[in-house]
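With this grant's support, we have settled on a layout for protein records. A representative record follows, to show the layout.
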Amino acid sequence: MLSYLKVLVTIVIFSFVVYADNCSSPARILTQHSGLQNPQAGYLLYPLVERGNTEAMAAITKLAIDTNDPYWLSLAGKHGSSGALYYSAMRSQNPEKIKAWLETSANLGHAQSQFELALLQTDKSEKRRWMQKSAEAGYKPAIISMAKYSFESTDISQAKVWLEKAADFDALSAFKLANLHWKQENKDAAMRFFNKAAEQNFGPAKTTLELLQRNKTDSLESLLNVAPQGPNCAQTIQFTATSLVSFVQATDFYKQFEKDKRLAGLPLCVLPPIWLEKNAFKCDANFENTGRLGCDLYPLSQLQTQLSFTHLIVFSEQGKANVNNGVMYLDQSDTYSVFVHELAHFAGFVDEYALPEALANYHCGKNVAPNLILKTIRDEKEDAPLTESRYQPASRATIWEKALNAHNQLQTLESNNPVLHHIARSRTCKNTEFESFKPTQQMTFLEYHDVPNIPRVYRTLWRQALLNRSQYPAINDNLAISAFTNKDDQAGVFWSDL
């Protein structure tokens, strides 16, 4: 009987131990916590977290984030939860805490924290180090950033590596990689990535594939075969592209111009782009040390054949956009609004931001721009008293006043809330002795190119300027200068005499 009781007690004790062990086992706790409310669930999980249980750490981190509970976020972060640290950083308004939490989390290998920490860095090498760590951990935004960074650098081999990693989920990266391959004449690879970008519904890639089906490069001599336009074209403007990517850009700008209602009333004829063979023009971002984009036009000048267009636009790789006589240069980063801004320069309009001193003295001294008048308050005699201010030239000021009166009257008739314009100061001549004025108090596209505002009075003045110099072949000036610069007097005289 005694032996039976000993066996029975042993069985009961063993059963109790087993039951107690099961109740506190990690598996049972991890199952039980989901049915409890915070903070009970946190208290149940926390002993396991202290013992280093990774599943419990993940569970308490999720609990802290789901409930947005700073107590459990803090505890999870202290025990090395990179997710809790990242979430705490993202919800904080304290810059010091944000950086400290991100640094701790990033050092634990949290890819999103590494990415966010990279964005906070002012040192370029540190920014790249953390961004690369995040990208190597597979974080997509970091991969895209590394692709962009390497593409914009001179490290083409690294650019290809990161662009290819990003191409599967970022259409722009696929498109950039396709253009890199095309530039290096790896056309099969280029087509593969153009198609990959197009499959992600990337418009420029679709456009590129369509253009490649319908177009090919032309020789420089093709510019001689452009058909003459009608008498209503005060300016005939030929688009040219020097690469595939610039041809896509030129085609896009051409289509936008055709739909631009702001410019519809101007006697401008823009011709479809011509995709020139490689090196038809040799272009440089620092052409002749001017700090601006430019191309050597001498090969065209040598052809000594009268052109049927008056102005030329060259879309090139990179450089600062500008207008030089009858030629406009645009690079791959320029938008359509930059084109419209520069297009006004073809008609003699001047910028309405503060020009550098030398350029300001040139334009303000000549005072011929359609959107510029000056006001002088000094008499010719040095010791004479100040006289009443007058706008110069008076003839242009009179034209402005008539145009403004007509437009303001029309606005009053057409609108219950008319926007009336008046002569106002411009910043053009700020760095000179002159006071400059423009025909509106509003900010226009000539001050900031991304401002779409082209007031009606500007369109009137633009049209008048075009008609005053109707069909003047300004491109010939450039070709003559190019010939004389190359000591080709015969070609120089040819273009000068046209």
Remarks:
- DSSP finds 22 helices and eleven strands in the chain.
- Residues 357-443 form one domain.
- The two ends are 132 Å apart (CA to CA).
- Residues 4-46, 379-388 have pLDDT under 50 and may be disordered.
